[in-house]
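Fold sample X.
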Amino acid sequence: MRPMAINISRRNFTKWAGITAMSPSLLTACASTATHTKETLIGGSVRSKGDYEVIVSSEKATTIHRLPLPARGHGIAVSPHSRHAVMFARRPGSYAMVFDYLEGTMKKLILAPDNRHFYGHGVYSNDGRWLYSTEGERSSSRGIVGVYDVNNDYQKVGEFTDFGLGPHEVIVMADDSLVVGVGGVHTNGRRPQNLATMQPSLSYLSPHGELLEQATLSDHHKSIRHLAHDGDKTVLTGQQYRGEPDDYVPLVAIHQRGDAMQELGGEPEQWARFNHYIASIAATETHILATSPRGSCYGIWDKATRALLEINALPDASGVVVRNGDFHVSSGVGQVVQISPNLQKKRFYSGIQWDNHWSAIT
């Protein structure tokens, strides 16, 4: 087997080596004393430059557990049938960290081989048996979905490929099929190499990795990145625009298999607020919400008509999840916004510098 390595600075590696040498009781000591509060949300956070952690919190973003990370995290997968969750390193990342969100303890650190990297997202199968992770080949950005056997200590048992370059987020549908947001971009580190020829797609895979369907947008400079579904058959996609910097184009679309992708509404001057980038996206029965940390805002659309209803300022708007019909939105300055079905908003300050995405514990 090829030896595996993690790309962390010497300073961070030394710090991480000391942390992982702690006993479980010491790691648990990093948790908040608010153990009576129910764990409902998980997200990455930034404590200082080069110092990152994953936070398990209540619905009101009260910290319950905090675990240190070896490098900056991105997306989180939560098991539907166990107490495990996985934090994936930000692309091009070298680790995926499995942890127990009730105990607040790390269970396993999965390291990428030298010639591979993680793209920052993954998801458990509906039965919790498999963990799927978006991965890439460093030399080519060839897209890979890694398959890990949860019951066998997360050993890698397979790979799905041949669906495109630069996959980012993967989600699982109710019928057990996988949906992959394929960015279509070959990168050297984080630097794009093929913007003139990039080929993004929304790719549907069977549970065995067969390519079932691919949907595309008319503008090939819209890199399909972040995904969600509405609990039924509708997939939501958030894009990063890689075209002309003065063009302001729709960045959110919805799709059902067998149909064309449909973009959400908004005028160019409204899409300019999102600064060419959508991060997290979620839907209730009536609305769709998408965040833009680069634009420091989030938008809300009517799900039935696809009309843009409002854009709201939120510095470094980051994660969004749906809990009991309400949206919960995080930000990198510690603000949290709870939005009811009639779009009434409650704001509070969490004291946490939230980073990238949130996931809900169901």
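Fold sample Y, listed below.
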Amino acid sequence: METLEEAELCFPQINTSCKKRTRPQSESMFIYILLSFISLITVVLNLLVIVSISHFRQLHTPTNLLLLSLAVSDFLAGLFVMPFQIPITEPCWYLGDLVCVLYYVLNVIIVYASVINMVLISVDRYVAICDPLRYSTKITQRSVRICVVLCWIYCVFLSFLFLFDNLKQPGRYNSCYGQCVINVIVAVDIVLGFILPVSTIVVLYLRVFVVAVSQARAMRSHITAVKLQSSVTVTVKKSELKAARTLGVVVAVYILCYCPYYCVSLSSYDLMMGSSSNVFLVFLAYSNSCLNPVIYTFFYPWFRKSVKLIVTLEILHPQSCDTNMMKETTE
């Protein structure tokens, strides 16, 4: 019969094993069900975004290509990162040291890809609002594709740079057998992963807000003759402003979801792996990947229409990729 001390070990047969911390079964079940549900919803919703933008030619715009890249990072978060978050909420890690490090490598890639995509989206809106006459020449599909590729290459490089020591010797920072601990320079992570990109986003959107307000005042002050002459231009500006407002909501939700996690990291307060506080902060951060498609549903009529075509399998019809997605949703 096992002794009480052996029963509390993650690996009773190993003397250097970490000790278990018991959690009420009801609490464990709630965490498992909640994370599994969020993971499934995140995968499904972001897959709808990916299929929509990839399939319908009319949606192949520079802005939507950035949304596509963001949806890919959110999809990968739901498919790979969130499911592994379930064993991480437990006090013991049973998947081995190498899998632990690879999990964090993928985690860093996806998190950094999300925030850099947010920066690119902010730049796109900044140029569209502040320099609309040269937007079509500055922001092209080719330039956006190059930026997206460079974004993902940079994230992969950064993840290996951050975790090189951990990859070279997995498990070297574990204090006992059954831990999943990595060594990252927290200050560098906070600056590159949150403070710098979020500051850039906030500055760009403040500039967009100032220009949008000045444009709105200028529109109201137009004389009747000029108003008739520039009606097309005004419509375009309204469309760009609406897109900026929608993507501004996406950025704001991102900041609200990740801010508590990075604030705790910045305060140097050490949260125990598997604690309720740690689980909540991680849940809040990853829920952002699920919320983005929900925002598109409320603000983008073309997304609602594309989802309807996908669910009803009309997307399988020949020439469905040429469907007019904006016919009933003129902005």
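Sample Y note: Residues 25-219+233-322 form a domain with the Rhopdopsin 7-helix transmembrane proteins fold (CATH 1.20.1070.10).
Also: Residues 202 and 252 are 9 Å apart (CA to CA).
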